Amino acid sequence: MATAPRWTILHEEPDWLAIDKPAGLLSTPDRFDRDKANLHDLLTARYGKVHPIHRLDRETSGVILFARTPEANRQLSRQFEEHTVEKTYLALTRGVPTAATGEIDAPLAECVRRPGLMRIDLRHGQPARTRWRVLEWLGPFTLFEVQPLTGRQHQIRVHLSGMGLPLAVDPEYGGNTALFLSEFKPGYKRATGGGERPLIARLTLHAARLRFRHPGTQEPIEVTAPLPHDFEVALKQIRRWVGSAVPTAR
Question: 20, 33, 41, 57: which is the annotated catalytic residue?
Answer without folding.
Answer: 57
